[in-house]
Specification:
The complex is a heterodimer. Chain A has 8 helices and 4 strands, in the order H-E-H-E-E-H-H-H-H-H-H-E. Chain A is mostly helical. Chain A folds into 2 domains: about 30-100 and about 155-270, no CATH class; about 105-155. Chain A is flat, with a radius of gyration of 26 Å. By secondary structure, chain B is of the alpha/beta class. Chain B is globular, with a radius of gyration of 22 Å. The chains are: A mainly alpha, B alpha/beta. At the A-B interface, strand 1, helix 4, helix 5, helix 7 and helix 8 of A face helix 1, strand 8, helix 9, helix 11 and helix 12 of B.
Chain lengths: ~270, ~425
Amino acid sequence: MKECIVTQFREYYNNFNVKPGEEKFIPYHRAYRKLVYNKRFFPYLVLLIFPFEVLILLFSNRIILKICELTKLTLSNYPNALLVKSSNFLTDFYVLDLPGKYPSYLFSLVTFIVSTIGIVLSKFIKSKPVKLWTIYALLLILVSSIFFMFFPSKFPYNIKTFSELYFNTEIGIWLFVPIIVALSLEFAPSHFLIKFFIVFLVLIYSIVFGFFRYAFFLYVILNLSYLFLPVLYFVFGPILDFTYIVGFFSLFLGILSNKIQKDKRFWRWVY
Amino acid sequence: MGVLILRIYLVVLTVVISLYAIRHFIFSFNRVFGEQKLGYQDVLDSDLPTVSVLIPMHNEEKVAGNVLNALLNVDYPHEKLEIIPIDDNSSDGTRKILESYAEKYPNLIHPVFRDSSAVRGKPSSLNDAIKVANDEIIIVFDADYIPSKGLVRDLVVSFLDPEIGAVMGRVIPLNVSKNFLTRFIELERSGGYQVDQQARYNLGLIPQYGGTVGGFRRELILKFGGFDPKVLAEDTELTIRTYVSHKKVAYMNRAECYEESPETWDARARQIRRWSRGHNQVMFKYLLPLIKSPFLSVKEKVDGVFLLCIYLVPPLILFGPIDSIILFFLGEIQILRGALVFLLLSAYTTFGLFAPFYEIGLGAFLDGGTYRLFLLPFLLFNFFFNMWYSSLGFFDSILDIITKRNPTWHKTQRFRNGGDLDCCS
């Protein structure tokens, strides 16, 4: 009889894919379960943030220089590309400078017409979030094309000033990445070194991504004109950075959740 | 001068966003590591109060049978229970369904039928039903909800505490795997209930009565003179009025109830717009009474202000990029200060409109979610969507004040096929 009940229990747990040895742990109900608090939460948080902040503050100018040098290599068709000195209140740094392309009146007019048609046609996009994003991007192009049709000489940016804006934003992102990633990761019950590695990974990704995006932005500006600069900055700018930050976090948390859901060492009930 | 105003706006926006970000960090920390305040479900008392369960319905033939069957199955003593489905001038088969149930269970189900002469909408429907309800406690379910067997009891025992004026349970989407939208809604629900509501309850702040899977004392709402038919968020209104009347709202995280989430973006858009409009109506009406009330502690007042202003944030953020774009064309954003402000804006974008990504992720994590956590980055799509329709709701509420018009109630579309549902008993 006893054996029969045990077998039934085993079958019951097997239905829930519980591995041998885990049968004794009946998970707490989700309503009031919580995680074990690590007393080192805040010290670890500081350790996850502080070293990276120092590194960025010390080396951001060199990273920017490297990105600009690599970007310059990709612009081999533009021999007049120069590295010029710039600064912000944190550091001096070098950015690329070369003559950009201004749109002709005809190009602005055609872009205006195409973006207007695009906005009208976007009503056929079924997914509302995609539709809203599309309209947002097209509206930016529309406003930009109107600007260049009527006030082309008043456009306040050239490649140098745009590069300054871009890298000021990048420094901000690099400074924010460790803070945001560490804050979110520190809640997860995982080893400090793993979290440290993830913060490092996200930061490296951010720097590499920053290079590719800069090169892409310059390519567009040099080939298609300044008209697309606003849409590049406001649609493919910092917003994208935070998407991959969440991406890394969700990947980490999803994998961790798979591993520890049935491990009672990590869970507490109410207290 | 213009540029200065635009810059000040960005600074103010950054401050507002930062305050909400700090609030969400505190909530997440408390929910994940803090001591959890239990609900009252473990209280044993043979002398339970009498209960009227109200179910407002307008063209609910697809779901009416499901909710009534579930309520007939609850373990609350039937002699102390009364079920009042409210047919708000339906043009489909809802009336017939209710009549057949009333005929079959005359001692338990007492429907209220409202014709076209009555003011439509949930608040008016509830007012009519409260007039005929005889019991001390009112519990409300929307028609698409499937209460489990012990749910009514779990909610009602809270009222044994005389301090409690209203109670709220947890909403769990039933149709999660239908599409991306329903999965996103489930994630947002996890963050909202598992973390946000429970943390507010833990911290002695203001958990929100959500208008369904919850209830209130009949005498309390009668004291208020019923729900205001012009307010579309009668739930938020009741929450604030409860606190201003020296009562509290209890949140019962264990009292779970299944709901049907909207399955199309159109239905979701209308829902969010209505929530935002109603919530902002309440904000305009009750912000000062809340601050002035002698019955709320300072932390309750602070949380109340955050709660009331939550739907004010989307239009504020909507103007943020517009502001930034104007500054961009004026060449004013190239300073680091401007870039940082935009960064904060973007950070909040990723963090989500009503809860940051990690709060939503932790909610799903505590819920036992695994693969669905991989969907978190896609919440970015929701951000623009929520921001846009919440902002439209805000402008609706402004127009309501200016024109003094009567808002029309648009009910959420249902997607169930009308068949039997055996999911949650």
